[in-house]
Write a structure and sequence with these properties.
Layout: H1 2-28, H2 33-46, H3 48-57, H4 59-66, H5 69-86, H6 99-108, H7 112-115, H8 123-132, H9 144-150, H10 155-163
Helix pairs in contact: 1-2, 1-3
Length: 170
């Protein structure tokens, strides 16, 4: 069994990398997001096993790479390129991510008094809806993020209330 796994490690890396490449490019250009999102995430996770098997099978030659300057430079450069994304900042410092997430972050900084008109209601109605949904710290002048935090709930649950995905308890 070990020989079989090791025999197919590199071919699976190649195949899964190609799937990841195609789905990643499609996601980058916002083509078929519903189709490619789950595929990209799950098959990237599956890619871990053949990658580990490939490392195991080729440990000696790979170790030679690890001890050289090109590998060190490549790893440092890769981490440096990833850091702006990991910290939520893109190259322009504007905050990255999908547009709907950027808008949700901006919305979370707003108060019910600012958000309510866009939802077609009065600020007091929105506060009452939030309180009825368990956001006990709701107030017209606090930001939505502060309301969620002070109510010991997450912002996603609060956004679900705003979207009408949850109904106030009767």
């Amino acid at each position: 069994m070990k020989a079989l796994l090791l025999k197919y490690a590199t071919p699976f890396i190649a195949g899964l990398f190609l799937v990841s490449l195609v789905s990643g490019v499609a996601l980058f250009f916002h083509v078929g997001n519903a189709t490619f999102h789950g595929m990209h995430e799950w098959l990237s996770m599956v890619l871990i096993l053949p990658f580990v098997l490939h490392l195991w099978k080729n440990w000696k030659p790979l170790f030679a790479y690890l001890s050289g300057a090109p590998m060190a430079i490549a790893l440092v450069a890769s981490v440096a390129l990833a850091l702006p994304f990991a910290t939520g900042q893109d190259q322009g410092g504007r905050g990255g991510g999908p547009p709907q997430i950027v808008v949700a972050r901006a919305l979370a900084k707003s108060s019910p008094a600012q958000v309510a008109p866009a939802l077609g209601m009065q600020a007091e109605q929105l506060v009452a809806r939030l309180v009825d949904s368990g956001f006990t710290a709701a107030s017209v002048d606090l930001s939505l993020a502060e309301i969620a935090s002070r109510s010991a709930k997450d912002e996603q649950a609060l956004m679900a209330v705003l979207a009408g995905a949850t109904r106030p308890q009767q």
